Amino acid sequence: MGSMSALASFINYDASEVTCYLFDARDVVDKGFDAFRRDEIETDVEIERGLHFHIEDTRLVCICKLDVTWNVLYRAKEGDESGKVRTQCCIAGAASCESDLDERATLENVLAQNVIVFLWGKIRDLIEASSLMSPIGKLTLPAINPAVLLEKGMEVES
Predict the structure, then answer these.
(1) What is the pTM (predicted TM-score) of this model?
(2) Which residues touch 115 (CB under 8 Å, ≥6 apart)?
(3) Which pLDDT does position 2 carry in this prediction?
(4) What DSSP string describes 69-120?
(5) Rounded Cα–Cα distance for residues 146 and 62 (Å)
(6) CA 132/CA 75 separation, integer angstroms
(7) How high is the pLDDT of residue 100?
(8) Which pLDDT score is estimated for 125?
(9) What percent of the chain is helix, strand and coil (3-state, nearest 5)?
(10) Which residues of the chain have pLDDT under 70?
């Protein structure tokens, strides 16, 4: 096993802040969760993101904001009725590394992907904790490919 300094990343994560959070299972719970199939669910996710880069002292900083809405649709055991669990989370956070002007585009890409994964994990933890406290049980937000999210609408401010 290597030393901790050899394992440590060159990226630092700054504090993240949740600015809105919603976990709404009322539709499923009010209709009686036992009436729904747990093995056949459909999900859809909507993600809005914003990125901003700037230099602070000698560090390149990436500030990321994610607004994620995840809907989980349960089908009824009988009939056509369905029930929906809706989650929404708005979160912001930052990552930074030593700046290298010759490699700025590469570093921006690496920072952006890392901060997205960092924030996504926090959203997943919130949803898992909330769902475990509800009658429906644990829901886990699926993993994402941050590179694909960056390709879609790369409106980056430097």
Answers:
(1) 0.87
(2) 13, 62, 64, 93, 94, 95
(3) 58
(4) EEEEEEEESSSS-EEEEEEEEEEEEEEEEE--GGGHHHHHHHHHHHHHHHHH
(5) 14
(6) 20
(7) 87
(8) 98
(9) 30, 45, 25
(10) 1-7, 153-158
Among residues 80, 67, 52, 73, the alpha carbon closest in space to that of 22 is found at: 67
Separation between Cα atoms, residue 136 and residue 28, nearest integer Å: 8
Please state, in angstroms and rounded to a whole number, the distance separating the CA atoms of residues 139 and 149. 22
| Amino acid letter for position 117 | V
State CA 24 to chain mean position distance: 17
Q: Confirm if 14 and 92 have CB atoms less than 8 A apart.
A: no
Q: What is the pLDDT of residue 157?
A: 38
Rounded Cα distance, 24 and 93, in Å:
24
What pLDDT score was predicted for residue 154? 43
Asked if residues 96 and 59 have their Cβ atoms less than 8 Å apart, the reply is yes
In angstroms, rounded to a whole number, what is the distance separating the alpha carbons of residues 61 and 95? 6
Q: Could you give the CA distance from residue 71 to residue 52 in angstroms, rounded to a whole number?
A: 28
